[in-house]
């Protein structure tokens, strides 16, 4: 039987979700979590996890509540963790504080916790309920959830295109198709991500920095990992991203070489090659999962975007569409072999849309199962 929740329960969990969102740009590789402690209909303590290695949401909320936490109801967006890590178990803190009831939006997908946190609370006499605003809680931690279940990061392909689906003129000129507001929005996408991934052709053509430069975004000093796929080690040692704070990883299929870029700070990871001699994308994503990457934002040209989309490795496609036409000779948003049957088309469901300045932002998710979901 599904748990029944009151209007007060919903309002309090909505507040906990707001608190969790405060860590949107800073908690990676940890999940975003918010917590509210309530006596009667009054909030007596709040907490949000903001950065890996720092206090979790539950002890922060309990600390704010003080003695008022006894016999209180606690609303938390993710199941309290119940094992010793860099932080002590949150379940211990809740039990010690004497709370009466814990309402959890979603269970922790981490196999070390999944269900065990709630069970530990129940064994200590704490009333527990789960599933309140569960869908909203999942949306906050899609990448963390995927990594915990599959070992792979969530992959988001970002494309800026014209009305006719073109991303650059035939000569490669692409700055700028979309407007300033759309480019500012991409800064938020980068800040939300564990890593920003591109291909060597984009590095050579555009020399991107792939950094978060918007000072208004509370990243708490964190820069996403910069990732370059460079099958034949063409990465120039003078690339701008090698001068930036944070780490740059170059994945290559070459088993030797790369000393010059390593000297300038790049970390080389040598992976297997696919049948065409390019870095194997599955191998790259497994390595990024091992590096605790939850969300990987792909900012690349049509070739790499096409590979990821056609292979089913992309979990989400974000397209910024500018109100311009570039014509049939301009470069397409995704390059892949010609389809012979309409039934072979790549099909997406519209998850969300909004106007960003003069441009239209579409957030799409594959209608068919992604490659990672097909894995055993």
TrEMBL record:
Keywords: Hydrolase, Metal-binding, Multifunctional enzyme, NADP, Oxidoreductase, Riboflavin biosynthesis, Zinc. It catalyses: 2,5-diamino-6-hydroxy-4-(5-phosphoribosylamino)-pyrimidine + H2O + H(+) = 5-amino-6-(5-phospho-D-ribosylamino)uracil + NH4(+); 5-amino-6-(5-phospho-D-ribitylamino)uracil + NADP(+) = 5-amino-6-(5-phospho-D-ribosylamino)uracil + NADPH + H(+). Its EC number is 3.5.4.26, 1.1.1.193. Substrate binds at residues 174, 190, 206, 210, 213, 299. Pathway: Cofactor biosynthesis; riboflavin biosynthesis; 5-amino-6-(D-ribitylamino)uracil from GTP: step 3/4; Cofactor biosynthesis; riboflavin biosynthesis; 5-amino-6-(D-ribitylamino)uracil from GTP: step 2/4. NADP(+) binds at residues 160, 176, 202, 231. PROSITE patterns: CYT_DCMP_DEAMINASES_2. Binds 1 zinc ion. Pfam families: dCMP_cyt_deam_1 (PF00383), RibD_C (PF01872). Its cofactor is Zn(2+). GO terms for molecular function: 5-amino-6-(5-phosphoribosylamino)uracil reductase activity; diaminohydroxyphosphoribosylaminopyrimidine deaminase activity; metal ion binding; NADP binding. GO terms for biological process: riboflavin biosynthetic process. Zn(2+) binds at residues 56, 90. InterPro entries: CMP_dCMP_dom, Cytidine_deaminase-like, DHFR-like_dom_sf, Eubact_RibD, RibD_C, RibDG_C, Riboflavin_Biosynth_HTPR. The active site is at 58 (proton donor). Residues 7-128 form the CMP/dCMP-type deaminase domain. In the N-terminal section; belongs to the cytidine and deoxycytidylate deaminase family. Converts 2,5-diamino-6-(ribosylamino)-4(3h)-pyrimidinone 5'-phosphate into 5-amino-6-(ribosylamino)-2,4(1h,3h)-pyrimidinedione 5'-phosphate. This is Riboflavin biosynthesis protein RibD. It comes from Povalibacter uvarum.
């Amino acid at each position: 039987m599904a748990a029944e929740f009151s209007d007060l329960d919903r309002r309090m969990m909505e507040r906990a979700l707001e608190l969790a969102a405060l860590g949107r740009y800073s908690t990676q590789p940890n999940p975003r979590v918010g917590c509210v402690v309530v006596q009667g209909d009054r909030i007596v303590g709040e907490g949000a996890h903001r950065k890996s290695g720092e206090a979790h949401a539950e002890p922060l909320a309990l600390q704010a509540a003080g003695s008022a936490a006894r016999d209180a109801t606690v609303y938390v967006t993710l199941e309290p963790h119940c094992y010793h890590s860099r932080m002590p178990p949150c379940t211990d803190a809740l039990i010690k504080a004497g709370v009466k009831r814990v309402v959890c939006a979603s269970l922790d997908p981490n196999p070390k916790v999944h269900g065990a946190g709630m069970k530990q609370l129940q064994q200590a006499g704490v009333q527990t309920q789960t599933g309140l605003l569960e869908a909203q809680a999942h949306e906050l931690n899609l990448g963390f959830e995927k990594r915990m279940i599959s070992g792979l990061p969530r992959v988001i392909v970002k494309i800026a295109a014209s009305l006719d689906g073109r991303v650059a003129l035939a000569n490669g000129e692409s700055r700028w198709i979309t407007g300033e507001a759309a480019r500012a929005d991409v800064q938020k996408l980068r800040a939300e991500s564990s890593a920003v991934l591109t291909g060597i052709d984009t590095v050579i053509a555009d020399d991107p920095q792939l950094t978060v430069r918007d000072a208004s975004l509370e990243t708490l000093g964190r820069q996403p990992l910069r990732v370059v796929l460079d099958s034949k080690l063409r990465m120039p040692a003078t690339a701008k991203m090698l001068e930036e704070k944070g780490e740059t990883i170059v994945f290559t299929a070459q088993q030797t070489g790369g000393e010059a870029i390593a000297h300038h700070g790049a970390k080389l990871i040598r992976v297997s090659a696919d049948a065409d001699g390019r870095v194997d994308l599955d191998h790259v994503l497994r390595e990024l999962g091992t590096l605790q990457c939850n969300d990987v934002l792909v900012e690349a040209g049509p070739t790499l975007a096409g590979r990821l989309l056609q292979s089913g490795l992309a979990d989400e496609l974000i397209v910024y569409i500018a109100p311009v036409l570039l014509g049939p000779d301009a470069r397409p948003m995704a390059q892949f072999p010609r389809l012979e049957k309409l039934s072979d088309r790549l099909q997406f469901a519209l998850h969300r849309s909004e106007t960003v300045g003069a441009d239209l932002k579409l957030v799409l998710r594959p209608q068919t199962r992604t490659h990672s979901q097909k894995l055993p």
